[in-house]
Amino acid sequence: MKVVCGPSDTKVGAISKRELRVILYGFAEKSSQGSIGASMLTQIRRAKIVPAARAWDLLSLALSVIAADTAVRRDESPDGWTRQIDLKVAVSDAAFWNSQASLVQDQLRFLTTDIWSVEFVGNGLLPTPPKDEVNPPEKCVALLSGGLDSFVGVVDLVAAKNRPYVVSQVAMGDKRLQASLASKIDGGLSHLQLNHNVSCPGENERSQRSRSLIFLAYGVIAATALKRYRNGKDVELYVCENGFISINPPLTGSRLGSLSTRTTHPIFLAKVQALLDAAGLRVKIRNPYQFKTKGEMLSSCKDQPLLIKHAAHTTSCGRYARNGYEHCGRCLPCLIRRSAFHAWGKKDKTGYVYANLAKDDEKHARFDDVRCAAMAIAQVGSEGIDSLARPNLNSVLMGDTAPYKELLKRGIAELERFLISAGVK
Q1: What residues contact 411, with CB distance under 8 A and at least 6 apart?
Q2: Which range is most confident: 167-171, 363-367, 391-395?
Q3: Through-space distance between the first and last CA atoms of the chain, rounded to whole angstroms
C-alpha cells in the first residue's frame, strides 16, 4: 500500500484509489483521508521552543510512519504479518532525506519487520519561530512515559545533578499521571506532553511496532530547542528502560511477532543515532540501564524514599486501558514489574486484576504470558541462555554479546524467583 503524507497545502501529486493521503499537522478534508498531529503545532508553540529544521523533518517522518503503521493492516498481507509499505513524506529538505532513504528503510524494517520504501518530497512543514522564543536551560532531555523505568531514570538524573527537560507521549489514561510524576521530582520539572492523535479510515492495525520512533522524535524536538544545543553543544537524550525489556527476547517461538517488539533495542537505537549524526543533529541517545534488570534498576535508584513513595503509581501493563486503567498482573510487562518489586524487596502496592497467579486456570497460571515465562525459564535451565538470546543478539551489529547474555540470564532468574514465590508451577 502507498501512503502519502504532508500538510494540507503540500502538493503531493495525484492520489489513486489504492493510495492513502494523510494530512500532517491538520485534519482530514475527506472521509477517504487520514490525519495525524493536528494539535502538535499548538502544543509546541505553547512551549515557545524553537526546534532545529531537521528535527521538524524527523517529526514529520515519524508521524508519517505512525500513520502508515496504523493504516496498513497486517492480516491483509500475503503471510498475515509482513507488510510492504510505500511511504511518501513531505519535508523541508527533501534532498538530504532522500540521501538517507536506505538508512531510514533499514531502521524501519528492523523496528516493524515490514518492507518499507520511503521517498521524500519538498514543501514540508517548517514553522515560523515565535517572537518570544524560549531556550530552556536544562542540559539534557529524558522521555517520561509514566512507566516505572522512565521514572527511575529521571529520578537518577536529578540525583546526579543533571536535571532533565522531560517529554511525554500522551496516551489514554496517562496524561495526568505523567504530569503528576514530573511535578513530584525536584520541585517540578519542565514538561512537554505531545499527542499524535492519529486517525485513518477503515479498520486500523493494532500492533503499532513503530511507536518508539515518535517518542524519539519528540525528544529530538525538545533537545534541539535547549539553550545548550543552541550554543553549539551536544545534548543527551535519555531513553531509560531495563535491558531485559530492551532486548525483549521472544520467550517462545510463537512470540516472534507483535508480542516481541524492538522499541528500545540497542540495534534500533544505534540506527536512529546514525540518522541523527548524518542529519547533523547533535543529540546523543543514551540508555544507562542497558545492562540492568528492572529489579536492579529499583535497587540501585539513587533516591529510594522518593521511589518507594511513587513506584506503585507508575504504569507497566501492556493491557492497561483494556483493564479499566488497572494493571492486569499477568502480561509480560506486568510479570517483569512484579519480579522487579520482588527482587527489590519492597512491598508492591500496585493493584492487579489477576493478582493471584497460583490459581491454576486460564486467567491466572495458565494464561499465555505466564505459561510462556515458565516455559522460557525451563528452556534456559535445560538448554542454556543461548537458546533465548540467539534470535535477538547480533554480534556483527552489537559487538561483544556476552554482557547482553549475562543480563538476560539475570533477568530470567529474577522472573523465576518471582514465579516460584507466586506459586506458579
Answers
A1: 242, 243, 244, 293, 294, 336
A2: 363-367
A3: 46
Distance CA 264, CA 243 (A): 9
What's the CA gap between 175 and 193, in Å, rounded?
Answer: 8
What per-residue confidence (pLDDT) applies to 319? Answer: 85
Q: Identify the three-state secondary structure at position 275.
A: helix
Q: Which three cell numbers stand for residue 305?
A: 524514599
276 and 359 share one domain: no
Give the pTM. 0.95
Say whether both 34 and 116 belong to one domain: yes
DSSP label of 3: E
Answer for the pair 262, 110: CB distance below 8 angstroms, yes or no.
yes
The total domain count for the chain is 3
In a domain, 130, yes or no: no
pLDDT single digits (tens) 232-253: 999 999 999 999 999 988 776 5
Within a domain: 391:
yes
The answer to whether residues 15 and 58 belong to one domain is yes
What is 15-53 written as a DSSP string? --TTEEEEEETS--SSTT-EEE-TTHHHHHHHHT----H
Domain that holds residue 22: 2-121
DSSP 127: P
Q: Which residue has the higher pLDDT, 77 or 173?
A: 77
- Together in a domain, 273 and 381: no
Residues present in the chain in total? 425
What is the predicted pLDDT for the residue at 257? Answer: 40
Q: Give the DSSP H/E element, type plus range, for residue 69.
A: helix 53-71
Same-domain status, 145 and 274: yes
Residues 147 and 28 in one domain: no
| 154 CB-near residues (< 8 Å, 6+ apart) | 142, 144, 164, 166, 181, 182, 185, 189, 238, 240
